[in-house]
Design brief:
Blueprint (H helix, E strand, L loop, with lengths): L13 H36 L1 H8 L4 H26 L3 H32 L15 H34 L10 H30 L1
Helix pairs in contact: 1-2, 1-5, 1-6, 2-5, 2-6, 3-4, 3-6, 4-5, 5-6
């Protein structure tokens, strides 16, 4: 394949196209970090104002599911990394197999988080509102904890669903990728890793700090 056929007309070369795509995803992830950053800072500030109430809320979360979901996302990033390495050697079928594993692990996270954990928490009356099940002096702060919790995990889940869609697209389009031309696999891999990093920040905020206090 000639260099002219390997890139779109608006780019000077295939390398220029690749560098532009990688720079673009890094810029996008920077804006995403600016989006999530204030949420985390607000969460920390609110907890500092009423730590005991936040601890009460944190202890009502399911640590076992939190640990399981953390393991699922770490394993999914590892699987994606293996798939990315394999396409670098031109092993397309191996890439598809490992990316399918990464997709399944991400889907399992969604199932556990929203199909099991959220469902249990909603049934226990932990959604902020008039029917919130935690009473006493910690009620207000615990409601604020769960307001942050549901909002942040919903946003993370939305990003993960988008990632699953992108990953599925990579698998479906696998025939177009070669050892020399697989920039979209790299770009989606960076986004997938970013989703994991966000969860690794959320995990201690949700499950660990309240139990350690």
């Amino acid at each position: 394949m000639s260099d002219a056929a390997a890139h779109e007309f608006q780019f000077a070369s295939a390398e220029h196209q690749r560098e532009t795509a990688i720079s673009g995803i890094w810029l996008f992830l920077a804006t995403e970090a600016l989006f999530f950053g204030p949420i985390f800072l607000s969460w920390i500030f609110a907890r500092h104002a009423d730590p005991s109430a936040f601890d009460v809320g944190g202890r009502r979360t399911d640590l076992t599911i939190g640990l399981a979901n953390t393991a699922l996302l770490i394993a999914s990033s590892f699987a994606y990394g293996v798939g990315l390495a394999l396409i670098g050697f031109g092993r397309r079928r191996g890439m598809v197999a490992w990316l399918a594993i990464a997709w399944a692990l991400g889907a399992a996270f969604i199932g556990l988080k929203f199909g099991v954990e959220w469902r249990t928490e909603l049934s226990e009356g932990l959604f902020p509102g008039a029917h919130f099940s935690i009473h006493g002096p910690a009620r207000s702060g615990a409601q604020l904890f769960f307001a942050f919790y549901f909002f942040a995990t919903a946003l993370h889940g939305l990003h993960l669903l988008i990632g699953l869609g992108l990953l599925a697209w990579i698998i479906i389009q696998a025939e177009r990728f070669t050892a020399e031309n697989h920039t979209p696999v790299h770009v989606v891999g960076l986004y997938w890793t970013f989703i994991d990093v966000i969860w690794l920040i959320l995990f201690p905020l949700i499950y660990l700090i309240g139990r350690a206090s």
